[in-house]
Write a structure and sequence with these properties.
It contains six helices and no strands. The chain has about 100 residues and is mainly alpha-helical.
């Protein structure tokens, strides 16, 4: 576990120090615990607050929210639910009997 922690820490460090704004944007866009580490690394590497804040705002407010809204719309669409029920019925006779 400790080795894996060091590996992820080094990865986050390389991404933040190499890519700056774009690295922060990626960490902010996907739901992962590395964003907290990226924030600490930005402070360590003295990334300007405006760069950090802009990348975080775009990543969380534009990219992440758009992806989450798209997934919710797709998952709760009547056609998607019907398709999932058809797949479940085809895979399990018990599910076909319940439907």
């Amino acid at each position: 576990v400790e080795e894996r922690l060091h590996w992820t820490s080094r990865l986050a460090q390389r991404i933040v120090s190499s890519f700056g704004f774009w690295g922060i944007l990626v960490f902010a866009s996907i739901p992962n615990p590395l964003f907290d580490l990226a924030g600490v690394l930005c402070g360590h590497y003295l990334v300007p607050f405006t760069t950090f804040f802009a990348a975080t705002a775009i990543g969380k407010a534009v990219v992440k929210v758009s992806l989450q809204c798209t997934m919710v719309i797709l998952m709760f669409d009547a056609g998607t639910i019907r398709l999932l029920l058809e797949w479940a019925a085809a895979a399990s006779p018990a599910a076909a009997a319940a439907a």
